[in-house]
Amino acid sequence: MNTPIDFLLWVKGPAFNVAVTVFVLGILIRLFEILMLGRSPNYAEAKGSEFSAGVKTLFTRFLPERSSFKRAPFTVIGGYIWHIGFLIVLFLFVPHIELIHGTLGIEWPGLSSYLVDAVTAVTLITLLAMLIDRLIHPVKRLLSGPEDYLVWLLTFLPLLTGYLAYHRLINPYPLVLGIHILSAELLMIVFPFTKLMHTLTFVLARWYNGAIAGRKGVQS
After folding, report:
1. What CATH number is given to the structural domain containing 102?
2. Residue 14 domain flag
3. Alpha helices of the chain — where are they, by DSSP H?
4. How far is CA 210 from CA 34, 39, 49, 199, 215, in A?
5. 62-75 pLDDT tens trace
6. What is the pLDDT of residues 123-161, one digit of tens each?
7. Has residue 42 been placed in a domain?
8. Quick check: 215 pLDDT over 90?
9. Residues spanned by the domain of 171
10. Distance of alpha carbon 100 from alpha carbon 110, whole angstroms
11. Which residues, at least 6 apart from 85, have a Cβ–Cβ distance to it below 8 Å?
């Protein structure tokens, strides 16, 4: 890799293939581990429906509890902003949709590049604010470990490098584009083995909690 073009071709070729392989196999292994844990038999008489209660909980938990919002409004609001912003940038930016289409053969309409650019800026600012809050809040700082900061960094870098590449703030362009792609690939590689996996496992966890409560006939 003697030139930025060589680096870009490497991250778009061999590095991308490695990242996708680790990402897919890692997720399958983690889901297999979770499903293999099984459930202890419950011999108590069911007082309600597990399935309907589980499905209901999947959606009701998207709204924060009032007590949580009162205790930490910044954490709740900031969490919603950056999660939604990240998903918009990832799935509604036209170049990303074209990449998904080239890889999986599926596509959907995207948003204006100017709108996605604005969302990216807001998401970056929110992530920085939440990092500062984590560092200065005594309880959050105490509860935070190396993995929390690693996950923050690997979430922040693809947004930052993508913003820099879109505005061509670093030259040569193939170099910053390659760095952006590589940062996304690093995120994919660590995804199955860190707290980022909750992006998928939250569905199982919420349904299970709702199902258990539904079987007991209580509100989850």
Report:
1. 1.20.950.20
2. yes
3. 4-12, 14-36, 50-60, 66-71, 73-92, 94-104, 113-136, 138-143, 146-166, 173-190, 198-216
4. 17, 14, 10, 18, 9
5. 777 777 777 778 88
6. 999 999 999 999 999 998 999 999 999 999 999 999 999
7. no
8. no
9. 4-37+65-216
10. 12
11. 119, 120, 122, 123, 126
